[in-house]
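Let's practice the habit of predicting before peeking. Look at the sequence and jot down your guess about where helices and strands might fall. Then scroll down.
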Amino acid sequence: MGKVTGFLEVERHDRKYAPVEERIKNYREFVIPLAEQDVRSQASRCMDCGVPYCHGTSRLTGQPTGCPVNNQIPDWNDLVYRGGWDEAARNLHSTNNFPEFTGRVCPAPCEASCTLNIDDNPVTIKTIECEIADRAIAQGLKPEVTTNKTGKKVAVVGSGPAGLAAAQQLARAGHDVHVYERWAKAGGLLRYGIPDFKMEKVHIDRRVAQLEAEGVTFHYGADVGVNLPVDKLVKEHDAVVLSGGSEKARDLPIPGRELKGIHFAMEFLPQQNRRVGNEALGQIEPILATGKKVVVIGGGDTGSDCIGTSIRQGAVSVTNFEIMPRPPEHENKDLTWPNWPLKMRTSSSHMEGAKRDFAVGTLSFSGENGQVKKLHCAHLDDKFKPVPGTEFDIEADLVLLAMGFVHPVHEGMVKSLGVALDQRGNVVADMNAYATSVPKVFAAGDMRRGQSLVVWAIREGRQCAHAVDKFLMGSTSLPR
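Done guessing? Here is the structure:
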């Protein structure tokens, strides 16, 4: 695959970012694409490994060692190197319904698993994937409309990446697919959680238009279990797919939590995304970082998104606390490769001016006139206990809790259906059949496996579609 000696002759060269002073003035994407010849040169570095961990499957666990959707990475690297862009796009779409999503927001476990990552020099797989997808889309997204209609009607609840992937696969199998979304537009956390500067929503809009052309019907403002009865939904469809995501945020129940100015990240981020998308906010109280001292608690991707958004809104300062100790700058390859390593990661938002501190526990909040003004913190030991003498205070006008999500929201649909839950509060569904404890009801994505990556959601949606099609028809030609 690629050029036999490419990895010896060509150094890793990846996309750059627009300067900080330019990009923080707006909410547009700021990653600068590589020139075509540069992308082809990078693709030439693929080594034709004996065991391609970038898209392989572990014999022990049956789980992916790199790409969860099993993208055939060496194949399309070779095609790109040789200039076969159209065939590369066909190959890529055979495993991934939305490669322009993953080419923007996936953390690229494939690159962590790349053999060249043994010396910190992996193939720029994510960049190549994004370029293949963008070139194909620039030629026009062609709907794949089937004339072989089955007469079966399927409901998909939730239009995040898992729901969209399941809906597209099921529509292409000939089913009448209806997607029920409680928000005003499709996309789930892709639209309302991920800021536009990481992924502009035109990418979602184009895919929704493609799905509609393929026969998928979208129902917006449909909050199943709230304004749309669950029993009615189940009765009117031959199968139901639950793909609503894991949206119950982890709280921080400490003294002062009731003060104004302390919000979950998913109260803050959707507001800004709706502003950018020209959606009316209605009667909700605006949450803005403008002119404020902001503290973001949580060091993951959601925390990073809060940082970038706060900086663009004009925060006076942004501080980011992580409860875990500072990870090493570089992983021990002998211990971690080809698995995803724990190491220091600095996002583009961190580079825009946030202060970071690790092993920090917030002990309490205090304020004036009901408004938060300070966090009272301490550094933690390896048992997450405060270390005496390390206590400190930090001023804040806005505190954003970005500590992850614990499970799906149970109130409404989940409780009304009565589906079985696991110990973590996720919907129980077999990873092969994707069937829940309720007849003809299936579950996929974060709702089933817990908070995870967009690429895992796409995998789950595709596999769930395979299971649903087999349930309805007795057999299926959809890939797993």
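How did you do? The chain has three domains: 6-138, 153-247+407-473, 254-403.
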